[in-house]
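Course exercise 7: structure representation. Students receive a sequence record and must write out the corresponding structure in token form. The form below is the worked example handed out in class, using Isopenicillin N synthase family oxygenase (360 residues). Read each field label carefully; the graders check that inputs and outputs are placed in the correct fields and that the protein name is recorded exactly as given.

STUDENT ID: A-19
EXERCISE PROTEIN: Isopenicillin N synthase family oxygenase
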Amino acid sequence: MTDLNLPILDLSQLDESPAAAARFRDELRAATHDVGFFYLTGTGVSPELEARLHQAARDFFALPEADKLAIENLKSPHFRGYTRVGGERTQGQVDWREQIDIGPERDAIWAPASGGSARRASDVGSGRGDDAAAPDFSRLIGPNLWPDAQPELREVVSEWHDHLSGVARRLLRAWALSLGAPENYFDEHFGEPSTLIKIVRYPGKEDPTPQQGVGAHKDSGVLTLLWVEPGKGGLQVERDGEWVDAPPVPGAFVVNIGELLEYATQGYLIATKHRVISPRYPDDRISVPFFFNPALDKRLPLIELPVELAAQARGVTRDPANPIHALYGENALKSRLRAHPDVAGIHHPDLVAARAGAVG
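STUDENT ANSWER:
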């Protein structure tokens, strides 16, 4: 595997010995300081669970169109459910993929009110709100849309979610120690995590245009664990101004950090642009990214780095068109509104108008 463009880290080193755990933490810090991407093995995810998830994904996308459209995300003000091919955008350009978005299963706490404002229905994030209007990002909280024709999907996704949440927590504890913070630093500031699972299919194209399976972007949150169908390439990571391939490694996840962790370390750790190139017809490609982020109402505070690390912090990448917010809910809402303008236009015209007015 010496020809791979990303480092490989083994999570099981944390259980081997104090020396092996310290070595893992050093490698973790170095990988996310240098490139923001790495392969992760030793996660304890069984081949059997991988196979079940893969089959469930294939079964979902093989459903009749009517069954998939019955849970289309246009019906969800929370941006959940099925997105047809071409229904999502990155940097304003159409992504050539279909997918189902699955978040935490919760009751909706927001509903449209007269005049396009919001009203609170229950709790916001991990804390109880008062009688004031719910914050805009509370519109992301609500139930998922599950296909009636495939009840087993919910079971395997729930198992996948629970296992990867454990992996994510172990990584965050290792990061905290590697950055000179208490081991429970992220646990204390995360609240009830905002997770998102996307089950994605990239259809093949007979020509190279549009090549954009998903366009170049940085993830807006903290941590992403990506499972890719074995043997299927297409993921590319930007390194030193060039795009390099990140093919799947058997038994490994591709892991990257998002803008919020870059923000919390003031650029010592770096969020990196990545993209997916469409496969050539008749091939296609399944991938399942798992996003692990703080509660919507949580702010991830700046980490007070040791002097030697702080001296290597590069500052946060500034993009006036894509500001990074300390409050995670603002980042998440910004990302959803941009990625799904059709859903935003149907359910959140007031937010669309407000943001258009701010730009104008």
